[in-house]
Every structure is written in structure tokens, then in C-alpha cells.
Amino acid sequence: MDKAAIIGVGMTKIEANKQRETFADMAWEAVNKALADAGMTIDDIDNVITTSSDFWDGRTISCMAVADASGAADKNTSCVEGDGTFGAFYGYTRALSGSYKTTLVTGHSKGSQCVSSLITNSSFDPIYERGLGMDMITACAMQANAYMDRTGLKPEDMAMVSVKNHGNALKNPVAQLPMKISVDDVMKSEMIADPLRKLDCSPVSDGCCAVIIAHESVATKFKQQPVWIRGLSFCTDHFFFGDRDLARSKSLAEAAKNAYSMAGIKDPKKEIDVVELYDAFTYQELLWLEEMGLAEYGKAADLLKAGHFNMDGPLPVNPSGGLLAGHPVIAAGLYRIAEVVMQLRGDAGAHQVKKAKTGLAHGVNGLCGQSHCVWILDKER
Amino acid sequence: MAEKEQLIIESGDASQPFAYAVGMHGSKFFTETRDNKRFMGLKCPKCGKVYIPPRGVCGQCFVEMNDWVEVGPKGVIGTFTILRFAFIDPETGHQKPVPYGYGFIKLDGADTLLQHYIALEDESKVKVGARVEPVFAKDRKGSTRDVEYFRVID
Predict the structure, then answer these.
(1) Number of folded domains in chain B?
(2) Is B115 within 8 Å of A118 when comparing Cβ atoms?
(3) Under 8 Å between Cβ of A176 and A205
């Protein structure tokens, strides 16, 4: 099988309200940063994938509205509605198709322009679920309770994720919410939906991220050191929450297994050096780590407490601060990929982790992790 | 370029009305709840799983389901939350009074969970595994609101 690599990344700063920028302005910034990072011009890009959600953007065909600012003029451009990792998956398959060599993938969202609980409510079934007021926080609170009930974990255990990630964000210039906080601060923050308190939840955010994926035949043609895509998989669970075991995530376990297998990884605990994952809520970081085989089920909190996932620990998780420090929906997974790329290149600056040859980036589409996309990225081919 | 005032254009009161077809399976489910105060699920002929809410296809087996079975009306709480923050009610556009309970109910005889409100008569009794019964609305119209909520029974 042919190989592909990520040869450029660009991120806007994640902010609560980017009132100066339209969607296209955000795309313009992220795309130009990615091109500069890669040492390319827009003429070096032969196809474009934009990733967005019509509901969040408040218009239909939202992806096409950013095409001009993304350099898609006269090029084959296509769209993905979902998390950026899924848009990048599509970009990767295009780079391998034989028809394209360099795919630019963008993902954007602005939570600031809408009532986010009404948008997430709209993702639920209109006949059985929506009218009762189900939204993302309600759903995830129920998942958190199911997870706590199964594992015996306490809210204090989950709060440690918030402390770590907001703390890591202090060193990340694009993070929205860098904060030095304690478990006590999390436990004293406002209860939103039991057991989730305000500091267990990611914020409403605006942002855009762009990555450039190149076929191996051109991956070393430009100035940037390529980061190779060694493993990649996505899997989906049932749509109705009531059909799923909410205390587990079998689609993530499956996606991780497939990605490890493709990458030739036998012992992910030893072979993965850095992880950027989709921590929309504190408990999710623990659950996702466990389902990806990076901790035993119900035991990630013990490792976290021992410093295992700290920036200077054996397996740094979300050194960027993750989604808890900034959650531009849709773009969030693409930010995870971009962050891992920076780490593997040694370009992460103040939040650079020590040894990073192989990294894992993770994205989620659908509430409570209906679908998961797992990327194994590597400095070496 | 000097920093200038940043303007906003609001979408106003315009709405996008939809008429969602409940479909043949959902229509039977809701008319049974409305007329007979009972919950009907569909059973997969291959794996035997009983689905609530009913739908035409067992996704796992990819086979059509036609075998109706009555489930509940009592069940247990699969998981739950208690909403403390006043979100906007999508049906009314106004803030919902808090707190209120929300949960997934495993109706007796069903293999999937139904979501609904859970009454907070005694918050300490709202737990995973607690036994619950539905409280039906007096005036039932054929929607999820025909059940007002589930309540914990001892």
C-alpha cells in the first residue's frame, strides 16, 4: 500500500468569540499558516476538503462558503460534515487514490454564533428524543454516570483531568482556557448536570485548523519534514443512545485496534509516545484512554493521579490542553492531528514533550462518541 | 487597518418548520401508548434483541423486524442525570425550570433503553438500577409526552 504524510499544519488561536473574523476569514488564516508551514503555495495544492456542520454554521452547504478562502478555486473540492479527523480521513484516501498528490483539509466552527444546546439538541432523533430537551451535556452527563457506576470512580477522579489539561494549556499559545486550578476548584464549580460541573465541560469556542496531506511521491519535495500516517481507522456505534452500552465505547476499541494493526503496533502502551484525544468532558479522557488500550478499564484515573499522563510523564496526554482548553466543534479533531504533528516534529514550543517518535490523534463524531477516528502518526516512515 | 466596531446581524424570528414522519413502526408505538398505555417493541428474528423505540431494522444483524412484543411498563434506570442548569427548551424557546431528572429506562423485556424524564420526588433514590414506573399523561396525543415522566418505586 502507498504511504502518505502530513507536511503542513495551521491553527488559528481558539477563542470564545472571534467577532472580527467570518468563517472564511478563519479559513484564510489557517490555510495560509499551513501553506507557510509546509513551504508551499496554493498552486502546490491539487485538491481541497473542507469540514463543517450546517447546523453550527446556521446555513446550508456551509463547507462551500469557505471554499474561496481555502484556495479551492478551479480545484476539485469536496466536503465532510463531521469532525475534522473524518475530513482528514477522506483527504488521506484522496492522496492515496492515484488521482491527487496534495490534499488540503480544513475544519472550522463557531460556537459563539448560536445557542449551542439547541444545536446539539438538533442532532437527536426528532421523534423520540429531541422534544424532551436532550442535548450534548445532558447526554454526556448520563454517560459519565454510567461510567462511574460501572467503574466506581468518583467525580474527584474525573476532576484531575480538568486540572491537568487546563494546566497544560498555560504553555499553548492557541489555547482558549489556560488555567492553573485545583481539584477543589473543579469540585466547587457550578453543577451543570450531575455529575458534570462547569470545569468538567469544554467551553464554547471558535476556531479553524488546516492540514496538508501528501502522497509519498511528493512528501519530501517541500521544505517541511513529513510526519507519516502509519495507521488510521474509524468505527461507528449505534445511533440511538439506548442501543449502546454508554459505560463503554466498543467503536473506539475497534478503531484503535484497527489503527494499531495497520501501524504494526503490538503494545500501544509502550509504543505510543504522545496522545491528543477528544476530551469534550473530563470523564471522556479516561474512558477513551481505556478503550484505546492505553490503560486498563476503570484504571486510567489511577495512572493520571500518579502523573503518568502529565506533560513530563511516560505517556503525555493532551499536552496542548485538549478540548477542555478550547473546543471548536468539527475543527477539534483536526487540531488534535495538528498538535501531534507539531510534537513529533519537535515544533510544539513551550508544550513540547520530551521523547516523541510515535503519536496518536483521536477525533469523535456524534454525541458521547458514536464514531471514533484514530490516527497513528510517526516521525519515521 | 485601524480597529473598528465589529457588527453583528441577527437571524431574527424566522424559523424552519419541519413535519417529521413518525413512520409505520413509531406510529404503532405511539398509538399503543396513547390508546392502551402500553409500550410495544420490535424483536429481531436473528439475535432476539427487543428494540425500544421500535424501528424497522436491527442494525447489528441487518435484518428486518416485524415481531411486535409488549415491554414494560415498569423498568429500571440504566443511567441518569439531574439537570441543574437552565437550558432553553427546544419546544418552547424558554428556559426549562430546574432541577429535573433525565434518564435511560430499561423497560422490562426490552434490550435497549428508552429515554425520558425522571421525577425527583426523592433525589437520593434516583440511582442506576432503581426500579421505575411511568406516569401517563391524562390527555394523550401520540408523542413522547404521552408519558409525563417515570418515577422511582420502592
Answers:
(1) 1
(2) no
(3) yes
pLDDT tens, per residue, chain A with 381 residues: 899 999 999 999 999 999 999 999 999 999 999 999 999 999 999 999 999 999 999 998 888 889 999 999 999 999 999 999 999 999 999 999 989 999 999 999 999 999 888 899 988 898 998 888 889 999 999 999 999 999 999 999 999 999 999 999 999 999 999 999 999 999 999 999 999 999 999 999 999 999 999 999 999 999 999 999 999 999 999 988 899 999 999 999 999 999 999 999 999 999 999 999 999 999 999 999 999 999 999 999 999 999 999 999 999 999 999 999 999 999 999 999 999 999 999 999 999 999 899 999 999 999 899 999 999 999 999
Q: CB–CB of A325/A285 below 8 Å?
A: no
Cell of B13: 424570528
Within-domain flag for B140? yes
Three cell numbers, residue B58: 436491527
Could A242 and B104 be called an inter-chain contact, meaning their C-beta atoms sit closer than 8 Å? yes
The three-state secondary structure class of A108 is strand
Compute the nearest-CA separation of B40 from chain A (Å). 14
Lookup: cell for A122: 438538533
Contact B105, B152 (CB under 8 A): no
User: Do the chains contact at B116 and A138, CB–CB below 8 Å?
Assistant: no
Q: Is A15 left (phi over 0), alpha (psi -120 to 50) or beta?
A: beta
Q: Does A191 touch chain B (CB under 8 A)?
A: yes
Distances (CA, A) of A105 to A80, A92, A343: 10, 9, 19
Answer whether A127 touches B (CB < 8 Å). Answer: yes
Please indicate, yes or no, if residue B43 is contained in any of the structural domains.
yes
The answer to whether the Cβ–Cβ distance between A141 and B81 falls below 8 Å is: yes
Closest CA to A328 of A151, A114, A171: A114
Q: Which grid cell sits at A110?
A: 463557531
Residue among B30, B81, B149 with most chain A CBs within 10 A, to mutate? B81
How much is the CA Rg of chain A, to the nearest whole Å? 19
Q: Which residue of B has its CA nearest to A21?
A: B6
- CB half-sphere exposure, A116, CA atoms < 13 A: 16
Residue contact A145–B128, C-beta within 8 A: yes
3-state SS, residue A6: strand
- 3-state class (DSSP) for residue A40: coil
- 8 Å CB contact between A352 and A311: no
Closest to A344 (Cα-Cα) out of A258, A209, A226: A226
Query: Within a domain: residue B18?
Result: no
Cα separation, A176 vs A324, in Å, equals 9
State how far the Cα of A170 lies from the Cα of A176, in Å rounded to an integer: 10
> Which residues in chain A are closer than 8 Å to B83, comparing Cβ atoms?
138, 141, 192-193
B9 is a domain residue:
no
Cα dist from A70 to A15, A100, A104, A221, whole Å: 20, 17, 8, 22
Query: Domains of chain A by range and CATH?
Result: 4-115+204-215 (3.40.47.10)
